[in-house]
């Protein structure tokens, strides 16, 4: 859909991971944009979908709870795919909230002007939107204009975060997500939704500019473990190498990344495991 790509573009930093796999975002990720004239806090949430397990139920709950207490909602739809049944169901929920809703039609870089008009044609039936914005989260088309409108809808208030802070999540959470992003990037369809990553240890060496990071990639079946590791460990090496580059950019230091792969059957259905993996707080 492009929610995380859009948030990263709005904030100007890579905070949320991106993937072409559905339901990539699993947690509510708070991203902070500070400008000379405003500070805006964006919430990147999981997409609203029909859950099939406890993890899915948690993701939908997180997305729905995020609708409360916000000053503006960006309702992102896929302009290339058109308005679908799922979009209409979400629009019904948004019609009940008090915050202004901006309909954001993404991926217009993939379609013609005539197709954009066709996509926008049914939008009056979806609800009463404050604005309708065709954008491309990938290229940045119309994103600065969207940001100006969002800032214009924000009520006056103090700065809630220091100007250098860009997220409320600890570095270990972001590191785990960056590893998961690369695992999603290189694996086949049967693996992505069964993936979880936990950072087990982070230690900065005193004698050099180097950070040791140990993390575990969890899957649900032995066959998935084999895919993640790959022949002679080649897939795990590729995932680790690409993730290490991203983590180094995050930390501003060299990183020695050690990855392990373990099987935890049906972890998406077990509340205790979800809590241990950081998906459920209570």
| CATH homologous superfamily heading of the largest domain | P-loop containing nucleotide triphosphate hydrolases
The total number of structural domains is 2
Q: Quick check: average pLDDT?
A: 87
CATH architecture of the largest domain: 3-Layer(aba) Sandwich
Largest sheet: 3 strands, parallel
Query: What share of residues is helical?
Result: 25-40%
The strands making up the biggest β-sheet line up spatially as 3-4-5
Euclidean distance between termini CA atoms: 29 Å
Overall geometry: globular
Report the count of strand segments: 8
Low-confidence blocks of residues:
none
Question: C-alpha Rg, in Å?
Answer: 20 Å
What percent strand? 15-25%
Order of helices and strands: HEEHEHEHHEHHEEHHEH
| CATH hierarchy, class of the largest domain | Alpha Beta
Discrete helix count: 10
CATH topology of the largest domain: Rossmann fold
Structural class: alpha/beta
Descriptive overview:
By secondary structure, the protein is α/β, with parallel strands linked by helices. It is 36% helix and 20% strand. It contains ten helices and eight strands. The protein has helices at 3-11, 54-65, 85-94, 113-120, 123-126, 143-153, 171-186, 222-229, 234-251, 271-276, and strands at residues 29-34, 39-44, 73-78, 101-106, 131-134, 196-204, 210-219, 254-263. The strands form three sheets. The protein has a three-stranded parallel sheet with strand order 3-4-5, covered by helices on one side. A three-stranded mixed sheet has the order 6-7-8. Strand 3 (73-78), helix 3 (85-94) and strand 4 (101-106) form a beta-alpha-beta unit. Helix 7 (171-186) runs antiparallel to helix 9. The chain is globular and about 55 Å long. The two termini are 29 Å apart.
């Amino acid at each position: 859909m492009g929610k995380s790509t859009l948030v990263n573009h709005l904030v100007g930093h890579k905070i949320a991971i991106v993937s072409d796999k559905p339901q990539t975002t699993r947690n509510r990720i708070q991203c902070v944009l500070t400008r000379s004239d405003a500070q805006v806090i964006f919430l990147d949430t999981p997409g609203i979908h029909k859950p099939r397990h406890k993890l899915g139920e948690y993701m939908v709950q997180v997305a729905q709870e995020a609708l409360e207490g916000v000053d503006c909602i960006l309702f992102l739809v896929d302009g290339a795919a058109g308005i679908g049944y799922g979009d209409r169901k979400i629009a019904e929920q948004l019609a009940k909230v008090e915050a202004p809703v901006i309909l954001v039609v993404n991926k217009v870089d993939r379609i013609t002007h005539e197709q954009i008009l066709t996509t926008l044609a049914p939008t009056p039936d979806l609800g009463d939107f404050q604005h309708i914005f065709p954008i491309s989260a990938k290229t940045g088309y119309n994103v600065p204009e969207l940001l100006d409108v969002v800032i214009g809808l924000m009520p006056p208030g103090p700065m809630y975060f220091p100007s250098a802070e860009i997220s409320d999540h600890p570095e270990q959470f972001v590191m785990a997500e960056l590893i998961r992003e690369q695992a999603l990037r290189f694996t086949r369809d049967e693996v992505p939704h069964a993936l979880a990553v936990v950072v087990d240890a982070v230690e900065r060496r005193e004698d050099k500019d180097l950070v040791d990071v140990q993390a575990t990639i969890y899957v649900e079946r032995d066959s998935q473990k084999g895919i993640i590791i790959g022949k002679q460990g080649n897939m795990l090496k590729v995932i680790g190498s690409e993730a290490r580059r991203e983590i180094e950019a995050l930390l501003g230091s060299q990183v020695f990344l050690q990855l392990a792969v373990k099987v935890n059957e049906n972890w998406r259905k077990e509340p205790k495991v979800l809590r241990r993996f950081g998906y459920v707080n209570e």
